[in-house]
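Quick start: read one record
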Amino acid sequence: MLAAAAPALPHTDSNGRLLLAVLLAIGAIVLLITKLKLHPFLALVLGSGLLAAIAAVPFDKLLTSFATGFGSTVAGVGLLIGLGAMLGKLLADSGGANTIADTVLARTGRRGLPWAMALIAAVLGLPLFFEVGVVLLVPIVLLVARRGNVPVLRIGIPALAGLSVLHGLVPPHPGPLVAVDALHADLGVTLALGLLIAVPTLIIAGPLFGRVAERWVGPLAAPAAPDGDAAPGTRPAAGDGGDAAPQGGAPAGTAAGTATATRTALPTAVGAEKTPRFGAVLTTILLPVVLMLGKALVDVVIDDPKAVLQRVLDFVGSPLIALLAAVLLGMVTLGRAAGFDRQRISDTVAASLGPIAGIVFIVGAGGGFKQTLIDVGVGQAVSEWATDWHVSALLLGWLIAVLIRLATGSATVATITAAGIVGPLAAGMSTSHAALLVLAIGAGSLFFSHVNDAGFWLVKEYFGMSVGQTVKSWSAMETVISVVAIALILPLSLIV
């Protein structure tokens, strides 16, 4: 989906110098984000400059390379992130998320609650960013735990696993989208294989690991809601006397403070007059998935560019059209069904774009950094090393993403950087193997979330856990997801 490749930058012939440039650039990005608390966008810009400087690239060539990568990434991914945010905001404000949750939970017994929460999280996780999903789901988890007298982690871990697995492995989430773009993978095939890997991964890391985490952490009661058992998704915003703000607060500039600020700014339901129907909500959420999977299936079965059916599905199954169709449908099935007038629907859609500006800029800067990596010759050097050392490209992509995730705490930064480094390895791959490389990188980007990740503090404060308890539950769950996913991806690569 890249618009055009930037002119190749003049670079050194020394692979050792390139390796030094990469290590110093990534190290600088890590220090700027974790120690100096610099915004990832600025850290990636400065890291790109350092990379090019050490690789002896002229400054004007650096600007051209970075601008090309930034522009093409935002053009290819930014639109999809915006449409996804619109759909997520409509789902949140209309009460559609509550409809899904209430319907599934009403048909589930006490023993089936962990599986029900995993299912709810997986369905809601398709169109929602992870942080938004946490804000919507955690109140439901706590409410169900209190009413059903169930240990909170027994149903909380499956819910978090459902959101995290979808976030790391399944488009249209930003990380997988960026990797698809960087590796020129087929989005439909990536989506299909991502869902294939996501299901068993979610089962193991969710309901099954939830019981293990419950024993490790010990009894953990759901924090009491000061306003009683309020309806899920309608908790008062932080600062309004509700319990949305993390307990005890967190100092500004810390990872916990970042989580607090992030959660305060996230969209929450605003009290719709009516509730959308379950079938309509589910149809709206799954529409883009069905269209993109349909395109991938027809491309494989028919494989005739002149066939009318394939031409139609190639159009409606493209990510932009599929998500646009879902947003337009959601205005009716979610917005109008909830009693919103035209102005309120317009305001809801407009309000969804503000909170994602930072995400778009980070993704764009990551694209610029990726293009700089490619143009100085890092990708080609990695390709040669992988060949000489006989390292699997899938395992290499996973390991690089793991290291960057551990250092920066950002799954998105890990995905972008790893995709840029191993990008040339995808050039000679089949369609299915390129998609599996995307998934391997996504799996690595989820490895062991800890104190440098805002999501760590978001989960800790919402569930009222200590740092140690959060490591034993949330951090361990993320590691299980990452390891199980790559353990499934590697043997699958021998079959497809």
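Residues 1-13, 225-270 have pLDDT under 50 and may be disordered.
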